[in-house]
Design brief:
The structure holds two protein chains of two kinds.
Chain A: H1 2-9, H2 17-22, H3 27-55, H4 66-101, H5 109-128, H6 154-182, H7 195-226, H8 240-257, H9 260-274, H10 281-294, H11 310-322, H12 324-338, H13 347-370, H14 372-378, H15 382-412, H16 418-445, H17 459-489
Chain B: H1 3-20, H2 40-73, H3 89-117, E1 125-132, E2 135-143, E3 146-155, H4 159-164, E4 193-196, E5 201-207, E6 212-216, E7 221-225, E8 231-235, E9 241-247, E10 260-265, H5 267-292
Parallel strand pairs in B: 1-5, 4-10
Antiparallel strand pairs in B: 1-2, 2-3, 5-8, 6-7, 6-9, 9-10
Helix pairs in contact in B: 2-3
The chains are: A mainly alpha, B alpha+beta.
């Protein structure tokens, strides 16, 4: 029996592939699974974007039928939102939150395994609709009725896939809250936690609040489609706009679910490479909480053109504009953190600086969109497409890439190739602007979104945008190459601290982080944490 | 036009594009900015858009300027030594209050325009717009306080565009031109909506199947057409001309192929057009009645 017990506890034991990855309850392994899954989905969603940009390269239909084009825009959004961006943040949370708060693992390890392993099945279901009779859903990712009710039987599969993703997200969120509130090391007070932990704590509450709302909305679609109810059918006494209200009550907090963890990442990276503590730690926490609160009272700005009463338009315009105040506080604090620092520009910092500038550009178009009369001209055009790709691609996705470059030495014990990291960065940052900046012009000139073909006046900027799209897509192969190089081929060993200016518990464990860390809670010494001076 | 030639021609056009948009009837190549449109509302919306834009540019210059200075001056390679301060209450209060003041300065004109926009009373002409997959129906409801007698028609993509738009049609979109030589591919219809200039027009907008979006940029707004709901907006066109737009809300496979064309004519010409349409409707009714009603049998004598 003693032998058995010894084997069981032996960290060097080599479990089989299935034991290691399928049955794992280790937060680092699950984090890796999430990140790999997210990268695969990023390329599947990206290849759909390439089809969209190829069809839009020139006026006239050259490649696909309009219905398939609509399937692509719908699936591109669902895959990127639920498959790429959200799982990437959950993967980063799994890897980093226990390391940052000094916990041995996530609070609910088996739930954690389940949260992840639901996702591949959910996405097999979702993607399988592409091969079903009638095709995948093609009513846009927002799935507005009555249009979405014209989908084929595959709608049931899509809805079930969304239910599964929601269950996965809710369980992941419960796990993150339980970990942060219960497993912090002694001395890791709430107001000493790294910003990434804070933003994820708030994000997790948003997830628990809104994923059930989405589940309710799509369940009503399911019964309207298959069981003869009339929630959204005007002819049966229902209201098509009811769906939009419910959907966007989920949808707007969802937008912040995809950006708050990014704020956290940027708030880790900028102080490290500025070698100066984060400016205004507490205002950063309060700003995050304010943004989360406001996200619940702005949903109808996605519906300004449906014919809301004047009072409703004014309320949602003012509430939406208010969001720019806490968001502005964050941007000012990042800039002030850099002010009088001692800055170096390694790849994570390059992506972080690009994030601040390009996310702010997306914020500017957001303020313009909040002005209702102007929105009547911007709504449903490429101006909106440009806006949300600035905040989601050069915002959320750039933050994820910054995080990967920042923490991959900790994960693998090797330094990535700085040279190729910079090549990846410069290609990405130039291409993303060639891709999305002209879409502002297209929208202002009058090009609606979600169209496969357009008047010849829109031809030139569309061609520029498509060239940027192919360039951006190809540039991401450099990212994969650099990751593969770091994991399998890199020789340069990373130190425990990795970055000279890095502070926090995750940098006190060796690189690569051992399979099990903080089995005994760490003793926190002065200067170990980034935010141990609580006077501010 | 080959795409290399298009890029060459475009370089000449790109500087002119900003001013070319003023016409506003339709998009132009390399267009950069929103149309000023042809309605009092669209002028106000354009001004608000430019005001919001310049406010954002101003904030951008300050924020990005500070960032660029920081990135140049405070590099370690230039020997910068990091300071350790972490907060400054006065600064934090200032950059919370200033954005609020900027927002108030933005919200005030936006509110005024919106209140003006929502006043659909006192219209000289009422037109009902109904969205269908994938065409629009226009019904003239009343004109100068008088009900219009059965004037309405379906407006859908012109057949020239409809043929050219098919996959592998072999017809270049550049080959589709209006009589005046304008490239009207996908922005031409079989029958335009005819309206009078300098008349406040109330549009009541709805849909029959799924949600559509009725959008003519020159009017300064778009309005979703929702089945079961009536959405009303107003417009008043100040210059005679042709104004083009598209369905803005995804409505199925042919969403890209249900354009809107408005032909604005002087009120006198409009009255003539409307009278002709009304008499055509009446004649049509008489003709149909004559065909369908059996000839009455002669009354028996005696």
């Amino acid at each position: 029996m003693a032998t058995h017990a010894a084997t069981h506890d032996d960290h060097d034991a080599k479990p089989s592939f299935a034991q290691r990855w399928l049955f794992t309850t280790n937060h680092k392994d699950i984090g890796t699974l999430y990140l790999v899954f997210s990268l695969i989905m990023f390329f599947i969603g990206g290849s759909m974007a390439m089809i969209i940009r190829a069809e839009l390269f020139e006026p006239g239909l050259q490649l696909v039928q309009p219905y398939f084009f609509n399937e692509m825009t719908t699936m591109h959004a669902l895959v990127m939102i639920f498959g790429a961006v959200m799982p990437a943040f959950v993967g980063l949370a799994n890897w980093m939150i226990p390391l940052m708060v000094g916990a041995p693992d996530m609070a609910l390890p088996r739930l954690n395994n389940w949260s992840f392993w639901i996702l591949p099945f959910a996405f097999v279901l979702l993607l399988s609709t592409l091969f079903m009779p009638g095709g995948a859903p093609a009513a846009g990712w927002v799935m507005y009725p009555p249009l979405v009710l014209q989908s084929g039987e595959s709608l049931a599969f899509t809805i079930f896939a969304i239910h599964l993703m929601g269950i996965s997200s809710i369980m992941g969120a419960i796990n993150i809250i339980a970990t942060i509130l219960n497993l912090r090391a002694p001395g890791m007070d709430l107001l000493k936690m790294p910003l990434f932990v804070w933003t994820w704590l708030i994000t997790a509450f948003l997830l628990i609040a809104v994923m059930p709302v989405l589940a309710g909305a799509v369940t009503m679609l399911l019964t309207d489609k298959f069981f003869g109810t009339s929630f959204f059918n005007a002819a049966g006494g229902g209201d098509p706009l009811l769906y939009q209200h419910i959907f966007w009550f989920f949808g707007h907090p969802e937008v912040y679910i995809m950006i708050l963890p990014a704020f956290g990442i940027i708030s880790e990276i900028i102080p490290t490479f500025s070698r100066k503590p984060l400016f205004g730690y507490k205002p950063m926490v309060y700003a995050t909480a304010s943004i989360a609160f406001l996200s619940f009272i702005v949903w109808a700005h996605h519906m300004f053109t449906v014919g809301l009463p004047l009072g409703g338009l004014l309320f949602f315009m003012y509430a939406t504009m208010l969001i720019s105040v806490p968001t502005g506080v964050k941007v000012f604090n990042w800039v002030t953190t850099m002010w009088k620092g001692s800055i170096t520009f390694e790849t994570p910092m390059l992506f972080a600086v690009a994030f601040v500038i390009l996310f702010t550009i997306g914020g500017f178009s957001g303020v313009m969109l909040a002005l209702v009369p102007a929105d009547f001209q911007y709504h449903n055009t490429y101006f909106v497409v440009a806006h949300f790709h600035y905040v989601l691609v050069s915002g959320a996705v750039f933050a994820i890439m910054a995080a990967v470059y920042y923490w991959i030495p900790k994960w693998t014990g090797h330094m990535y190739s700085e040279r190729w990291g910079r090549i990846h960065f410069w290609n990405s940052v130039i291409a993303v602007n060639v891709l999305f900046f002209p879409q502002h012009f297209l929208g202002l000139a009058g090009m609606p979104r979600r169209i496969p073909d357009y008047n010849v006046a829109f031809a030139d900027w569309n061609m520029v945008s498509s060239i940027g799209g192919f360039w951006f897509g190809l540039s991401q192969l450099i990212f994969v190459g650099n990751i593969v190089y770091t994991v399998y081929f890199a020789r340069q060993k990373a130190s425990a601290r990795v970055w000279e200016g890095a502070r926090g518990l995750e940098w006190t464990v060796p690189s690569p982080a051992p399979h099990h860390t903080f089995e005994v809670p760490p003793v926190i010494m002065p200067g170990m944490l980034a935010h141990d001076d609580v006077s501010h | 036009m080959s795409w290399t030639a298009r890029i060459g021609a475009a370089l000449a056009l790109v500087l002119a594009a900003g001013s070319a948009t003023a016409a506003g009837g339709h998009p132009v190549p390399w267009q950069l900015n929103m149309t000023e449109g042809a309605s009092p509302l669209s002028h106000q919306v354009y001004d608000l858009h430019m005001y919001g834009f310049w406010v954002c540019v101003g904030i951008g210059v300050v924020v990005f300027g500070a960032m660029i200075i920081a990135m140049i001056r405070f590099r370690r390679s230039k020997g910068a030594v990091a300071e350790t301060w972490t907060h400054n209450a006065r600064l934090e209060v200032i950059w919370t209050i200033i954005p609020v003041l900027i927002l108030i300065a933005l919200a005030y004109p936006a509110t005024r325009i919106l209140i003006n926009e929502s006043n659909t009373g006192d219209a000289g002409l009422t037109i009902k717009v109904t969205g269908y997959q994938w065409k629009w129906r226009y019904d003239y409801v009343d004109y100068q306080g008088r009900p219009v007698d059965r004037v309405g028609f379906i407006s859908k993509l012109a057949s020239a565009s409809d043929v050219a738009r098919q996959l592998d049609s072999g017809i270049s979109p550049d080959a589709i031109k209006s009589k005046t030589g304008y490239d009207d591919y996908l922005l031409n219809v079989n029958e335009p909506l005819v309206v009078p200039t300098n008349t406040k027009i109330r549009f009541v907008i709805t849909a029959d199947d799924v949600i559509h979006g009725w959008w003519v940029p020159a009017l300064g707004w778009q309005a979703d057409a929702v089945p079961g709901l009536i959405h009303d907006m107003w417009g008043e066109i100040d210059t005679p001309g042709t104004y083009r737009g598209q369905c803005a809300q995804l409505c199925g496979q042919d969403h890209a192929y249900m354009p809107i064309v408005i032909k604005a004519v002087a009120p006198a010409a409009f009255r003539g057009w409307l009278a002709a349409q009304e008499s055509r409707a009446r004649l049509g009714t008489i003709a149909r009645t004559a065909q369908l009603t059996p000839v009455p049998a002669p009354a028996p004598r005696g």
